[in-house]
Amino acid sequence: MKRFPIPVLCALLLPAPGPALAAECADALGIDKMVECAEAEYTAADRRLNGAYAATRQALDNGDGARLLLDAQRLWLKFRDADCRVVAGHAHGGLLSRFLWYSCLADLTRARTIELETQAKGLAP
């Protein structure tokens, strides 16, 4: 297996910064700043996920559909967190591990948001 130096690995794994973070994070070279940017990306992705979840829930009836969505979301959160623990575990702790954790959370959260937004659109009258 090919091994990359940590700065190269971090540069390859750094998520594309959102518009609000672009100027500050575009030139993030230090691992401290990369972790900070990855955490901010996750926080922004989580806010968008919460909005997509609320919109999907609202588009569903208040009966079985909403309950099934809640069950699915809880299971998805468990999966996401477990999967990201595996990804972050590759670094065996430290700042790189935190960077991998937040980057993974942001990536999977963005993907789930798209799924929920698509569902909400399909449910809209």
SSE blueprint:
Elements: H1 6-13, H2 22-25, H3 31-59, H4 64-89, H5 94-123
Helix pairs in contact: 3-4, 3-5, 4-5
Describe this entry's structure for a reader.
With about 120 residues, the chain is mainly alpha-helical. It has one domain: Substrate Binding Domain Of Dnak, Chain:A, Domain 2 (Up-down Bundle). The protein contains five helices and no strands. It has helices at about 5-15, 20-25, 30-60, 65-90, 95-125. The longest helix has 30 residues, at about 95-125. The radius of gyration is 17 Å and the shape is elongated. The N and C termini lie far apart (about 50 Å). The model is unreliable at about 1-20 (pLDDT under 50).
Question: TL;DR of this structure?
Answer:
By secondary structure, the protein is an all-alpha fold.
For the structure shown, list the relevant keywords.
single chain; 125 residues; mainly alpha; Substrate Binding Domain Of Dnak, Chain:A, Domain 2; elongated; disordered N terminus
Overall shape: it is elongated
Helix and strand run: HHHHH
Strand content: under 5%
Count of individual domains? 1
Mean pLDDT: 83
Amino-to-carboxy terminus distance: 51 Å
Low-confidence stretches: 1-18
- Estimate percent helicity: over 70%
Report the CATH architecture. Answer: Up-down Bundle
Rg calc: 17 Å
Total number of helical segments? Answer: 5
Q: Tally the beta strands.
A: 0
Main beta sheet strand tally, sense and closure: none
Q: What is the CATH top level name?
A: Mainly Alpha
CATH topology, by name, is: Substrate Binding Domain Of Dnak, Chain:A, Domain 2
Summing up helix and strand content along with how strands pair, one would put the structural category as mainly alpha
